[in-house]
Amino acid sequence: MRIVVLAGGVGGSKFLWGLAQEVGEKDLSAIVNTGDDIELHGLKICPDLDIVTYTLAGLVDTDKGWGFAGDTFQCMAVLEKYGQPVWFNLGDRDLATHIFRTQALRQGRRPTEVAEAIHRALGVGARILPMSDDPVATHVLLGNGPMHPLHFQEYLVQRGATDEIRGIEYRGSARARPTEEVLAALQEAEAIFLAPSNPVASIGPILAVPGIRECLWETQAPCVAISPVVGGRSLKGPTDRFLRWAKVEVSPLGVAGLYHSTLHGLDGIVIDVADAGDTSRIQALGIRVRVGEIVMHGPEEKRHVARMALKFLEEL
Amino acid sequence: MRIVVLAGGVGGSKFLWGLAQEVGEKDLSAIVNTGDDIELHGLKICPDLDIVTYTLAGLVDTDKGWGFAGDTFQCMAVLEKYGQPVWFNLGDRDLATHIFRTQALRQGRRPTEVAEAIHRALGVGARILPMSDDPVATHVLLGNGPMHPLHFQEYLVQRGATDEIRGIEYRGSARARPTEEVLAALQEAEAIFLAPSNPVASIGPILAVPGIRECLWETQAPCVAISPVVGGRSLKGPTDRFLRWAKVEVSPLGVAGLYHSTLHGLDGIVIDVADAGDTSRIQALGIRVRVGEIVMHGPEEKRHVARMALKFLEEL
């Protein structure tokens, strides 16, 4: 069965890892948010792509959720001496990815080709596809009075996502085109998952690329979300803050409703037992619900969520 | 006394370090070969500038003569996975220099300004000046029949300098201009040293920049070389091979004669006791000679060579 997963970073990568263990990597494709991409030190950094890649390669630092396990930070210490901004911590091994990617892009290779070269080199069998080869940059607007735009990474990492959000922009998304690889994956998909990633800041930029949403409107494949919200809180990161800005209830019901309206119909959602009380209200939207333990820490929990999602799919 | 040293990498940096201990850094300027510069992984590498900088900063790996002491090589290991050439080993801390420099150059800063930002950040008080802001690339020609050009670093590092040399090109040198900083340093110099570096591959590219040699022709400052050859062999690297190609005897006499003709007069040369037998023949060229122990391993030997060279200068 050809499975496509729309994914952000940490949450998406955990779910993908579990899926890869359960069904193998051969027919698994991830369409990954690139709205978080940022250039630092003259290097192109693609945080979500790298998290997904390192996770599927079994190389990720599972404690932090990003970067290579056991990485060192020697280079950053010297970059700091040179007066470079070091709020975005890049490990020495991780830097190889950014150096390789930056050079390959400057040589004219497409981001999709470069992403493939990287994940193949690290032994990943699944396809990891940037949502677009065109640049999209998610910005968060803050402040009272004049809006103060910050790149998503500045908001998340530099400021710790502490400010209330006044607006979101997916800069460049109106002109961005999905790649042939993304369109083909969606058209050939027999199942589509929306990973437990931030619906506004991670899945949102993917769905904002003209053509991707339309593919999801038209697909015959069942489309199932895994809730990124458990017990009224984000599983990871500031998802709750983004949902509140979008006037979406911070609950599986809110997330289900958002996807249902954006995608012109969501087939199902997997929610946590903590949110079992949402079940009937979600079902009232015409969305099937599977309730289970969806918090993923260790490998067994990741596989469990994947098995649950796959079983749910079979029953749809 | 304002001292200018023309220098390549390891030998030049050792001599400079000794001088800096003896006379301080304030009035010390190094004009450094950039013909060895190479772009790898999309990063601009300036081996001689970096060796001189790290050495004067007290950060160099004194065993190897290049790179940061205690550096690690995590990034290179991953770059190798990405199929990148890894024959030129770059440490994780060292990479910060190349990343910072590459970004600063892309932003339009001059190589001289970037070199200054780097050595100031690392606490070096001497001036470390690239010989030119224009690109020069030393190539070595090998082979029988058709000449096979190799970048100097490919010849030295990748092939271990094992091939016989059939030619040398300082590519770009005819169009290269000395910087205002280099010209000012030479015009204000009260003493000029030719460091114990490769006369053909390290000092040669500096002298090939139009305008630099002319400054040395016209200067009133005494010009003293420290022999890079001891007992018929290079102190470091393939200097002997380069001298043979240039049809220069691999001896202090040969080196003195080469500089004497190139500079329209060399005032003096410091040679090793092993070569004391060359003294009268060098003096016959009109060049003063100082004989002493010039092999530099530990810090005391470096200071000793500097003291000897400074005393020699006083007596000229």
The SS-based structural class of chain A is: alpha/beta
Largest sheet of chain A: 7 strands, parallel
The N- to C-terminal Cα distance of chain A equals: 14 Å
DSSP summary: helix tally of chain A: 13
- Name the overall outline of chain A: globular
Order of helices and strands of chain A: EHEEEHHHHEEEHEHEHHEEEHHEHEH
The averaged pLDDT of chain A comes out at 96
What strand order characterises the main sheet of chain A?
5-2-1-9-10-13-14
Give the largest interface pair and sizes: A-B, 31 and 32 residues
Q: Approximately how much beta-strand content do the residues of chain A carry? A: 15-25%
| Weakly predicted, low-confidence segments of chain A | none
- CATH architecture group name of the domain at 3-40 and 125-134 and 173-315 in chain A: 3-Layer(aba) Sandwich
Question: Helix content range of the residues of chain A, please?
Answer: 25-40%
Number of strands of chain A: 14
Nearest-angstrom radius of gyration of chain A?
19 Å
* Quaternary assembly: homodimer
- CATH-defined fold name of the domain at 3-40 and 125-134 and 173-315 in chain A: Rossmann fold
Folded structure, characterized:
Two copies of one chain form a homodimer. With 316 residues, chain A is an alpha/beta fold. Chain A has a domain at 3-40 and 125-134 and 173-315: CofD-like domains (Rossmann fold, 3-Layer(aba) Sandwich), CATH 3.40.50. Chain A is built from 13 helices and 14 strands. In chain A, strand 3 and strand 4 form a beta hairpin. Chain A is globular. The model of chain A has no long low-confidence stretch (mean pLDDT 96).
